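Marked as duplicate of an earlier ticket. Keeping the data here for the record.
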Amino acid sequence: MAIISVVGRGGKTTIKTMIENVLDDVEVYEGVANKDCDLIVMAGMARPFKKEVIHFPHAFKMIVNADVNYRLKVPYASEVVDYGFSRKATVTASSVIQEDWSQTFTCCIQRSFNAINGSHVQPREFKVHINVPGKYNIYNTLASITVLLLLDTKDEIISDTLSKLKFVGNMEKLYDGEFSVIYNKISNPYQLFSVLESLSENEFNNLYIITDSFNCKSYGFIKKIADILREWYQIYSYTICMQNDNCTAYLKRLLQSYGIECLSDECGEAIRGILNRIGKGDMVLLLGDNNVIKKPWADFFNIEKE
């Protein structure tokens, strides 16, 4: 059984989901839980911590994002197989087509490499369809495909399985009527940036963002969240809605100083504030951890989860 560790600052759960749904005989860990792994996957666009690299001295292969400048010396002689949009990437994507909350692209293997069992993965192309938007999810898919190819998985099995997958907490569409409700789990600023970037590929009128308290993270963490919201506010002009508590007070002050409209109240009242404004073609984006889903948004929107 192959053991795989996925490390990085975003995409770990999605990559784990993809791999485990294609193959049964694998163990996939998020983070550095098991150092005796066969494959290491560097997920996301953020540069990994040094400890995430040196933790795996015996791995057979390291899968890295070719579009990231790691600036870290790999502390062992395992082979590196890279993925990404770079022309130099071993596994890359071309002919990307956005299709209303899904996307199709051509996976291109640009040079040969050896699989774990000693077989040769030859240059070739095949079509891939995924039921989730966003450029960062193409990165997640390329990382997963690279792992699956290293485990000698057939192209048609990869394509067929990925095309049927639904992703919980990754641009998950909870409701699609006159307006839409989307949930994305957010645990760090990189993920927030990726989500807002992916929205540029979709059409909507007004955007309302409901955030949780981010588990009372540090001031530095909250400042990064606020700065990313300010950066994308120039494009979307959204309204932020959050629960009024000590954890969100600092975020609220920052957002208001940036000129971003921020509704802050008891959760139910905050949601009612959005209901008084929401119209046809608008989008509500739920961001944070699973606590956002557990809040009684469905009661106030008078809708049921799909």
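See parent ticket for discussion. Residues 79 and 284 are 44 Å apart (CA to CA).
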